[in-house]
Amino acid sequence: MPYKKWGKPHQTSDMSETILMQQDRLNKVESILVTQARPTDEKSPYFELARRYNLKVDFRPFIEVQGISYKDFRKQRINIMEHTAIIFTSRNAVDHFFRICKEAKFEMPAEMKYFCVTEQTANYLQKYIQIRKRKIFAGQKTAADLLDLIKKHKTEKFLFPCSDKRRNDIPEFMGNYELHLTEAVMYETVSSDLSDLTEVFYDIICFFSPSGITSLFHNFPDFKQNKTRIAAFGPTTAKAVTDAGLILDIEAPMPNAPSMTGALEIYIKKANNI
C-alpha cells in the first residue's frame, strides 16, 4: 500500500500537545478492534469508551505466548542457580521462569533477589514464592525505573527470563554499566491465527507491540489499510507501523493522553464531531 503523507495537522482545543490528524481520514468511528485479550475488569476504560460513544469494541489477541520446552531451554546451557538476582518484566516471564524451575526441580533459595518492572509484577510473585520484602525491588512503571534500582546492586549476578522478541533496553543498560547479565529465553511470541477476520472491517485497530504488526501481515500479506485508522501504543510500536508502510493515525502515550483509551477518545471526539 503506498504511504500517504500527513495533511495539515489539527490541534485539539484542550491540549498542550499537537496530535496530527489527517483531514481526509477523519471519518466517523463506530468500531474498534483492540489487539489484546478482553479485560476481565468490567470497569475497564474500553467498556466505558464503548458506552459513552456508542461504539462496537472487540478484543482479539494478535500474538500468543508459548513456553519453550525444558529440553530446548537446556540447550542454552544456563545454570539458573549460579545467579543471585532475577529480573522480571512481565507476568509471562514470571510464569515461564517458575515453570522451567519446576521441571528442573529447582527451588529458589531464600536469599534470591527479584527485580520487577512494576509493583503488580512483584505482587504476582506471590503465586510462586513467599514474598520477602527486603528481597524484592519494584519499579514504578517503566524499565527506566527498574534500572535505577539495579544500579544500586552492581555486584549481583542477574538472570533475565525473556521471550525471543525481547526489548533491548535492559541488556543495553547492563552492558553499558558492565553488570553481570544472563539472558534466558523461556518463551516465544508467535502470531495468532486470525483467518476468521478476513472479511471483517474495523474503523480503528489498536496495536501495542511490533509483534502485533508482524502478526497482521503474517495473517494478511496483502493487507490494505484504506480507511482503517491505526492506533499504536509506545514508540517502538509506532515505528513498526510506519516501517510497514501504514499510516499512523493515533499515537499513545501523549502528555495529555497517557493511555490508549485517552488517545482514542481525543480522536473520536474530533472524528465524530463531538
For the largest sheet, list the strands in their spatial order: 3-8-7-4-5-6
Top CATH class of the largest domain:
Alpha Beta
Shape: elongated
> What proportion of the residues form beta strands (DSSP E)?
15-25%
Helix content: 25-40%
Low-confidence stretches: 1-19
CA gyration radius, whole angstroms: 21 Å
Beta strand count: 11
Q: DSSP helix count?
A: 9
Write down the CATH topology of the largest domain: Rossmann fold
Structural class category: alpha/beta
SSE pattern, N- to C-terminal: EHEEHEHEHEHEHEEHEHEH
Largest sheet: 6 strands, mixed
Average of the residue pLDDT scores: 88
What does this structure look like?
The protein is an alpha/beta fold and 274 residues long. The protein folds into two domains: 120 residues, Rossmann fold (3-Layer(aba) Sandwich); 126 residues, Rossmann fold (3-Layer(aba) Sandwich). It is 30% helix and 20% strand. It has nine helices and eleven strands. The strands form two sheets. It has a six-stranded mixed sheet with strand order 3-8-7-4-5-6. Strands 2-1-9-10-11 form a five-stranded parallel sheet, with helices on both faces. α7 runs parallel beside α8. The longest helix has 14 residues. The protein is elongated, with a radius of gyration of 21 Å. 28% of the residues are buried. The N terminus is likely disordered.
Which key terms come to mind for this protein?
274 residues; alpha/beta; Rossmann fold; 2 domains; six-stranded mixed beta sheet; five-stranded parallel beta sheet; 30% helix; 20% strand; disordered N terminus
